[in-house]
Amino acid sequence: MSVIKIENLTFSYYGYVNPIFEEVTFYFDTNWKTGLIGRNGIGKSTLFRLLLGEEEYQGEISKSVEFIKFPPDISDTSKTVIELFKELTKDVGEWRLLRELNLLDIDESLIYREFETLSKGEQTKILLAILFTNEKDFLLIDEPTNHLDIEGRKIVSEYLKSKKGFLLISHDRDFLDGCINHVISINRSSIDVQAGNFTSWYQNKMMRDSFEITQNERLKKDIKRLREASKQSKSWSDKIEKTKKGVKISGVKPDKGYIGHQSAKMMKKSKNLENRQNKAIEAKQKLLKDIDTKESLLINCLQHHKDTLISVSNLSAYYGEKQILSNLSFEINQGDILAIYGKNGSGKSTLIKILSGLNNNYSGEIKLASNLKISYIPQNTSDLHGSLVKYIKNKEADETLCKTILRKLDFSRELFEMDMQNYSDGQKKKVLLSISLSKPAHLFIWDEPLNYIDVISRIQIEEIIKESKPTLVFVEHDGRFVEDVANKIIYL
Fold first, then answer.
1. What is the pLDDT of residue 377?
2. What is the DSSP letter of 12?
3. Which of 94, 112, 170, 371 lies most in the core, judged by the most C-beta atoms within 10 Å?
4. Residue 315: beta bridge partners?
5. Are strands 443-447 and 374-377 parallel, antiparallel or unpaired?
6. 130-185 pLDDT, tens per residue?
7. Which residues contact residue 23 at a Cβ distance below 8 angstroms, ignoring those fewer than 6 apart?
8. Separation CA 437–CA 440 (nearest Å)
């Protein structure tokens, strides 16, 4: 057993108004399978960099293990897997790598392939296998699910469950439930550590938040009452002061000889009362919790006069010389929430782009209802740079509505003024989501909309879909999200 202690940790990025961490203290055990949970941009990846010694900080981090990050930095992706294994490990026998690959259901022959020729999912599994051969090291695993399909996520979750300990950032609830036994949650003003998986942590959070919201409301009422009493005390004090100076108040003619002594006593009493009330207000304000509330989102759905929005007949498509879609026929009707399922490389994104009008390289027939308005979210966020406001205008979206949705998704106001290239991947994805949700549309088409999006925001998106019942076609590997919202599935 080895304990990692973080004591009085304080860190801020240059130019940021508020620190990311301020005098934070907590600990966790290297035998724990720990999930690190928190909103996008709240400091999860920053904590990894601090543990790895990549940033300067105040405070102390005590450890007796070496931290290793996933994904590792790879100098040359043209090297074979076995060459990378020797580069990333320290005198580890190849048999260990073969054992790990077997646990991850990876063909051993891939170790002789060049790394860059492998699929993203294969790369993820192989890198995890390589890093876990260093049994004395402690892995910091940053979002391993982003390139894994649903089946791949199940395999990797089972694999991690078999390991001794790690610290894991992931936003996939089923994935977390399958492999962790502790949670570290980074909140706005604190860090909590508790035993259990994601589901037990979230249930506890909901109960705690409900209690603290009730407490906050009571404290706010107390503060309001004290402020009103303080104003009355100040008014009383001012009147006494004027009377002492010989000013006629409410028809009372002052007697300076008598009032001079009395007013000084009353003035002191009034000031003491006012000071006590102000101290009580200050004390109660310190008790107010900065609770991470989950606000309802907005979506701009339009109703079409036709029930069938898209009709697809005998659709086939190729990727290079490989046929990936073959004679697909289906309809998308109003109210359908259609999930497109399939392994990586099965043609999900190709189908999404064809339905969105972004890929015309297919055979078969696609009929769209007249004047159909489509709101599309791409996988890629690489074009997000420069001004947020200009980007929203270029996409012909409503700026006020977009910003309102972003604020509900825990976007801080200072992000509105930053260059988008400095956003985290999750924050970039939220920009795309806010634009799609704010644009009036009959049909929403989303290609992996939840990549990099934090857990709480995922739940918010689920809730607005279930409440508003838009017509939606999407690709997503978050199994719980699919189960919760889809009423129709296409398996490729």
1. 95
2. -
3. 170
4. 328
5. parallel
6. 999 988 899 999 999 988 999 999 999 999 999 999 999 999 999 999 999 999 99
7. 8, 9, 10, 59
8. 8
Report helix, strand or coil for 209.
helix
Q: Which two tokens stand for residue 418?
A: 């930053």
Closest CA to 186 of 417, 28, 337: 28
CA terminus-to-terminus distance, the chain: 46
Separation in Å, CA 394 to CA 128, 173, 431, 437: 41, 35, 13, 16
Structural contact between residues 159 and 11, judged by C-beta atoms closer than 8 angstroms = no
Q: Is the peptide bond before 144 cis (omega within 30 degrees of 0)?
A: no
pLDDT in the model for residue 231: 67
Answer for the pair 103, 125: CB distance below 8 angstroms, yes or no.
no
DSSP for residue 215: H
Q: What is the torsion angle, in degrees rounded to the nearest 10, for the CA atoms of residue 369, residue 373, residue 377 and residue 383?
A: 130
Strand 58-62 relative to strand 3-11, pairing = antiparallel
DSSP 8-class letter at 90: S
145 CB burial (10 A radius; 0-12, 13-18, 19+): buried
- Cα(387)–Cα(407) distance, rounded to whole angstroms? 17
**Location of structure tokens 């076609």:** 473
Q: What is the pLDDT of residue 321?
A: 80
Report the alpha-carbon distance of residue 303 to residue 470 in Å, rounded.
9
Strand pairing of 443-447 and 182-186?
unpaired
Average pLDDT over residues 415-423: 93
Could you tell me if 456 and 39 are in contact, meaning their C-beta atoms sit under 8 angstroms apart?
Answer: yes
Q: Which residues are bridge partners to 474 per DSSP?
A: 339, 446
Q: For residues 378, 381, 387 and 391, what is the CA-based torsion angle, rounded to 10 degrees?
A: -10
pLDDT of residue 230: 64
Pairwise CA distance, residues 90 & 86, whole Å: 7
Q: Within 10 A of 272 (CB to CB), how many other CB atoms are there?
A: 11
Q: With CA atoms as reference, report the closest residue to 420 among 402, 408, 437, 438.
A: 402
**pLDDT tens for each residue of 236-264:** 656 666 665 555 555 555 555 555 565 56
Burial of 321 from C-beta contacts in 10 A (0-12 / 13-18 / 19+): exposed
Cα gap 336→471, rounded to integer Å: 5
CB 338 within 8 A of CB 489: yes
**Residue (of 392, 355, 350, 390) closest to 492 by Cα position:** 350
pLDDT tens digits for range 376-390: 999 999 889 999 999
